[in-house]
Amino acid sequence: MRPILQDGEHIITAFAQSASGPGWSNQPLWIIVQARDGTLRQECLQPEEQGRDALILYAVSQAAHEAMKHAVEQHLKKTRK
Question: Taking the CB of residue 72, how many other CB atoms lie within 10 A of it?
Fold first, then answer.
């Protein structure tokens, strides 16, 4: 597995966001990493890189992520009016 974190970096958040199309699907785990200088970057772990605990939590994270996106979208629609 390739290293995600360099010295002094830490994970801000990780979330599941599945994707699919005709004849394919994927369950990547997205990770937001903060460097020492405060810059952020996004990394992606494929299912074979995720580890047992992440795979177990994937469905919960996916559901929470979708619910949070919907809640934010609804809030922003209300505040734009």
Answer: 10
What are φ and ψ of residue 33, in 5° steps? Answer: -115, 135
Q: What is the pTM of this model?
A: 0.83
Q: Is 42 exposed, middle or buried (0-12, 13-18, 19+ CB in 10 A)?
A: exposed
Long-range own/partner contacts, residues 63-70 (CB < 8 A, 24 or more apart): 64/15, 65/15, 65/16, 65/17
DSSP bridge partners of 19 = 26
d(CA 49, CA 26): 13
**What rounded mean pLDDT belongs to the chain?**
93
